[in-house]
Design brief:
The complex is a heterodimer of chains A (171) and B (764).
Chain A lengths: L5 E8 L2 H16 L5 E9 L5 E7 L5 E3 L7 H6 L1 H10 L4 H9 L5 H8 L5 E8 L3 H7 L5 E7 L4 H13 L4
Helix pairs in contact in A: 3-4
Chain B lengths: L8 E7 L17 H9 L1 E3 L2 E2 L4 H10 L32 H6 L4 E7 L25 E5 L11 E3 L2 E4 L11 H19 L5 E6 L11 H5 L8 H16 L23 H34 L6 E7 L16 H5 L6 H10 L17 H7 L13 H4 L3 E4 L9 E3 L3 E2 L3 H9 L6 E2 L2 E2 L10 H4 L9 E6 L2 E6 L2 E5 L10 H4 L15 E4 L15 H17 L24 E5 L18 E9 L6 E8 L2 E8 L2 E8 L3 E6 L7 E11 L8 E7 L2 E8 L13 E3 L22 E8 L6 H20 L2
Parallel strand pairs in B: 1-8, 1-9, 2-11, 3-12, 4-5, 4-8
Antiparallel strand pairs in B: 2-10, 5-6, 6-7, 9-10, 13-14, 15-16, 16-17, 17-18, 19-29, 20-25, 20-29, 21-22, 21-28, 22-23, 23-24, 25-26, 26-27
The chains are: A alpha+beta (171), B alpha+beta (764).
Chain lengths: 171, 764
């Protein structure tokens, strides 16, 4: 793991295409080396309330469509059983691989589903804590946002951070 | 008694909370094919006026008298001691349906009522002010000022029958159900009496909040309001001119600074606001659809051409009460809980996002600015009797025998009090001088039947006062004096109202505006500075009319804010034996702003029981005391914003069990926090804090039930078992709502409760 300290943010949107725009903006920041992320995912809840990962981005700013090869860390956390093979097979960063090997089952998909009613969308991002302001500015249209620090360590710590961020989405 | 030979049927349709610029037939953006159809077969009246408020308009409509003259200067929730504001229909003002009934008509009312004093809405009555007593043989609908369209608490004749099931496997939906009831009634009457004419008053809950409609109706409007309210007004105005319902030389009035410019909103805000209007439009079109079903049914009976159809689109202008943000739950506004745009969006997300904006999960009301757009080309809206945005609404009339120029336009000044006299005139029944031995007030409205045949018929309604909650206007011979009290319609807090107290407020010092309507359709050019004598003349005339029709004292409807209170109720202990259900909001024991206890005697069989002991309203505001997983539980829903839960540590015993909830308020004051303690057989078993409590009321329409939670449930954890009827036996539930109060506290809370009634009612 690099020396960078990370935060995990969960952001929920009433308007899915605004989430898409801001997801794209995050990835662009990564591409332009203005932001370091360990992963970012766009999650949508369709009219029936089925929650799915629509798009992902990794630490290099590479976007993956649907469940593509460029899956980032957050997706591994988001839906590990489904994505484990992709993650393990993907040449993503060490942190991702580490977490992927742990097959973190955070239950985030279920929780995120509760936080994302039908027709809404969310962004989950793990990013350089020093760029919190940049991320906040970029995720301007989120109507709920929750952030937690990721303590150094393994899957357990990241899972705890996600749970903390998730708890902040309640109420 | 037989009706006059060839007397026609009468159908009066009244839409709720809608504006001049809403329906397509008047240039609005809402598709209203059935309103268009009646307009095309009949006439449009583009200078028709209402009172700017719900109950006053309804009283004026049904009696043909000015609203204050029949005790409805205010609303039934705050009926008080002044004659013009008593909410008690006087015996000397028989409504026209009663006159028709006693002259051989069958009569019925379906839908929203809102003319019965709230304290009389229970099995003990009295029933003198329920719909039957107003002259309707049959009534089915809701008495409340507003109602959820999916969980409406229905009254039939003189009894609450509660939330109904849907038909044919479909969920209940009030607009559909009320139409079915109307059609069934017509079929029944015709099956019984082949010739007897009928009079049907069909009064929709739409388009009042909550804006509840099936998703597909809202989806139809997706993207149609993305241009925003400023452009929508301009588009509507152009269509109005093209249709001729607004003269070509009319001026579009400007937006008030209280409403934000559309362009000032961020993209998120624009999208959320657009959804609010999509839902409102779909809801409104759905109402038009169901009136269409009713019309089709009458046509199938072969009676449409023998029926006078009078259809008023709005009992007042579109409602400004959503505040500039609009709300996921109108109850937050009623209870004085201001929320920012951001907070509204977060709470909308909590209750299902924009997909749920039209569903029972929310109680939606759109933004003030959409209402303003719905009142194009006028300023202001509901409550504001001083301006046409509150008082001028679309009217269409169909009567083939009398109308030669179908599709025509009429521009005579007409008023809602004219409807009764016009109907009696058209059916050939004179206004009675005596009814039940009581000499009658003459109707203050006049017949406009002559205008049906002659577009140039002289204007007969030449003078009319307007007054609602202090906003005033005086019309005479084309001149209109606006006297708007300087109060924002959606602000009703006690501190603000102090400046309008008797002896403090000087109404004649309010700013005035003067318009000459024949030349200025939209009230765009204020002539007060150049015509001071006309201003004084109309001010004097207003006071003369105020004296004549019991308008004085002004603001009597706000009297609880000025220390004038109705008598303090003496009943502080209420006992419900057995499964009493559908207790109306006004009859629910006052569990607001002070300590109270709820005690219940239960029988729990071996093996335990589950279900609701007593519950009021829903997850958007309410409380429930229930048993789940063997434990005694209490949920307090604070307006959909917070939920508080308490539960017993252990499971309930079996056999005869007493459970009790005590709420110990920190202070006897509005919205007081406090501590809840649960007891089983006198022993404390659980506790928790309510950081916030509801100060005014959980719901304007949802009832309280013993032994179950009818309609929408308070705690969503048992929604899949709704109504979650108690599987043991609830022998009795006792509310003690006045423990430990001293006289000062008691008076203060009574004052607050009376103010609360006013606030709830004024939004109706």
């Amino acid at each position: 793991m690099s020396d960078t300290e990370f935060d995990v943010a969960i952001a929920a949107y009433l308007i899915p295409d605004l989430a898409q725009n801001e997801f794209d903006a995050l990835v662009k920041l990564v591409e332009d080396d203005q932001l370091e992320v360990e992963g970012v995912a766009l999650v949508t809840s369709d009219a029936d309330g089925t929650v799915a990962v629509k798009e992902t981005g990794d630490h290099l700013g590479r976007k993956g469509l649907e469940i593509g090869g460029g899956v980032g860390l957050v997706v591994g956390l988001f839906a590990p059983p489904l994505l484990a093979a992709t993650i393990v097979g993907g040449a993503v960063g060490g942190v991702v691989g580490k977490f992927a090997k742990h097959r973190v089952e955070s239950g985030l998909e279920e929780k995120m589903g509760a936080a994302l009613p039908p027709g809404s969308a969310g962004i989950v991002a793990i990013y350089d804590r020093a760029k919190t302001d940049t991320v906040n500015t970029t995720l301007a249209s989120a109507v709920r946002k929750s952030v937690a620090h990721v303590d150094r360590g393994g899957a357990k710590e990241l899972k705890a951070a996600l749970a903390e961020a998730q708890a902040g989405m309640g109420g | 008694m037989k009706p006059p030979e060839g007397a026609p049927n009468v159908l009066v349709v009244l839409i709720d909370d809608a504006g001049f610029g809403n329906p397509g037939a008047f240039g609005g953006p809402i598709d209203t094919p059935n309103y268009d159809r009646i307009a095309a077969d009949g006439l449009r009246y583009n200078r028709f006026h209402v009172t700017a408020m719900c109950s006053p308009t309804r009283a004026a409509l049904l009696t043909g008298r000015n609203h204050h003259a029949v005790g409805m200067g205010g609303i039934p929730e705050a009926s008080g001691g002044f004659p013009g504001y008593s909410a008690m229909l006087p015996k000397d003002a028989a409504p026209f349906p009663k006159v028709l009934k006693e002259n051989g008509y069958s009569t019925a009312a379906v839908g929203k009522w809102h003319l019965t004093p709230e304290k009389e809405q229970g099995p003990a009555g009295p029933f003198d002010h329920w719909p039957n007593a107003w002259g309707f043989d049959y009534y089915w609908g809701f008495l409340a000022p507003e109602a959820g369209q999916f969980d409406t608490m229905i009254a039939e004749n003189q009894k609450f029958i509660g939330v109904q099931e849907g038909k044919d496997g479909k969920p209940f939906y009030f607009p559909e159900a009320m139409t079915d009831q109307a059609i069934d009634w017509l079929h029944g009457v015709r099956g019984h009496e082949s010739e007897k004419p009928w009079c049907l008053y069909y009064s929709t809950g739409c388009s009042h909040a909550p804006h509840h409609v099936w998703k597909e109706w809202a989806e139809k409007y997706k993207g149609r309001f993305d241009q925003g309210w400023d452009e929508l007004r301009e588009e509507t105005f152009e269509r109005q001119k093209t249709l001729g319902v607004v003269p070509a030389d009319a001026i579009l009035t400007p937006r008030d600074e209280l409403m934000p410019a559309w362009d000032s909103l961020d993209e998120n805000g624009k999208r959320v606001f657009a959804r609010q209007m999509e839902v409102y439009a779909g809801y409104s079109e759905n109402a038009d659809h169901h009136v269409g079903r009713l019309l089709d049914s009458i046509e199938e009976m072969g009676e449409l051409d023998d029926t006078i159809v009078i259809w008023i689109w709005g009992d007042n202008g579109a409602s400004l009460e959503g505040t500039p943000t609009g709300s996921f739950n109108e109850g937050t506004m009623v209870n004085g809980l201001p929320l920012t745009n951001e907070e509204q969006m977060r709470l909308a997300l909590k209750w299902g996002g924009l997909e749920a904006w039209s569903t029972e999960m929310m109680y939606p009301h759109y933004s003030t600015a959409w209402a303003w757009a719905g009142n194009t080309p006028f300023r202001w809206g509901k409550q504001v009797a001083s301006h046409l945005g509150g008082t001028r609404n679309p009217l269409v009339v169909r009567c083939p025998q009398r109308i030669a120029d179908s599709g025509g336009l009429r521009s005579q000044f007409t008023h809602v009090t004219d409807i009764g006299p016009t109907i009696l005139d058209m059916v050939g029944i004179p206004q009675p001088t005596h009814v039940d031995g009581v000499e009658q007030q003459p109707m203050s409205g006049v017949s406009f039947a002559g205008s049906l045949e002659d577009s140039n018929a002289p204007e007969r309604h030449t003078q009319q006062y307007f007054e609602n909650f202090g906003n005033r206007a005086m019309y005479k011979d084309g001149w209109w004096l606006s006297m708007r009290m300087p109060r924002i319609p959606w602000r009703l807090d006690p501190e603000l109202l102090k400046k309008f107290a008797p002896g403090v407020w000087k109404p004649d010092e309010d700013p005035v505006e003067l318009y000459y309507l024949p030349d200025d359709f939209s009230q765009a050019t204020d002539l007060s500075a150049s015509h001071p004598e006309k201003v004084k003349e109309l001010q004097r005339l207003f006071w003369e009319e105020a004296e004549k029709y019991n308008v004085k004292p002004l603001l009597a409807g706000f009297s609880p804010f000025f220390g004038i209170l109705p008598p303090l109720g003496s009943q502080t202990t209420v006992t419900y034996h057995g499964d009493v259900q559908n207790v109306a909001p006004g009859a629910v024991p006052r569990v607001y702003n002070h300590s109270y206890t709820i005690s219940a005697d239960l029988q729990i069989p071996d093996g335990g029981a589950e279900g609701v002991i007593v519950a009021k309203a829903s997850h958007l505001g309410g409380f429930s005391l229930f048993v789940q997983d063997g434990k005694l539980k209490h949920t307090y829903a604070f307006l959909g914003v917070f939920e508080y839960h308490q539960e017993s540590e252990g499971e309930l015993p079996t056999g005869d069990v007493n459970v009790e909830l005590t709420f110990a308020a920190d202070e006897a004051k509005p919205a007081t926090p406090g501590e809840v303690t649960l007891f089983v057989n006198g022993e404390p078993v659980g506790s928790g804090r309510l950081d916030h409590t509801v100060p005014f009321g959980f719901s304007g329409y949802a009832g309280m039930d013993v032994g179950r939670d009818n309609g929408l449930v308070v705690d969503r954890s048992y929604a899949d078992k709704a109504p979650f009827a108690f599987t043991g036996k609830v022998k009795k539930v006792v509310f003690d709502v006045a423990p430990h109060l001293d006289d000062k506290d008691e008076h203060a809370l009574h004052e607050h409760a009376s103010q609360a009634d006013t606030v709830r009612g004024i939004r109706a």
